[in-house]
From TrEMBL:
Keywords, sorted A to Z: RNA-binding
Taxonomy of the source species: Bacteria, Bacillati, Actinomycetota, Actinomycetes, Actinomycetales
Protein name, as recorded: S4 domain protein
Tagged with keyword Ribosomal protein: no
KW RNA-binding (keyword) present: yes
CDD domains: S4
Source organism: Actinomyces urogenitalis DSM 15434
Annotated ranges, domain RNA-binding S4: 26-84
Molecular-function annotations in GO: RNA binding
InterPro entries attached to this UniProt entry: S4_RNA-bd, S4_RNA-bd_sf
Amino acid sequence: MTWKTGAMSQTHDAYQYPTVLVRGEIKLGQFLKLAGLVEDGAEARIAIQSGDVRVNGEVETRRGHHLAAGDVVEVELPAQAAGAVVAAQDKSRGRRSRAFSA
């Protein structure tokens, strides 16, 4: 996996980020921890409230924002910027679906 480094761009390219598989729904704060974009919940809260997190190119300040398959999450931290793509698994069929935003 490779992470994008540098400042957050105004546009995002989903193919430059790793894809993180999640089962069912996941909130933004939980996803940041799962994807390894932050160390813990406190860091997630600070990053989100500071406006350092974008979902599909838009700043998101709600830690409880629900993510969907294909959402691109970007985080700008003091040292670097990083991101990940949400992928969902359909439990009933055992299939993995990926929808990328470009």
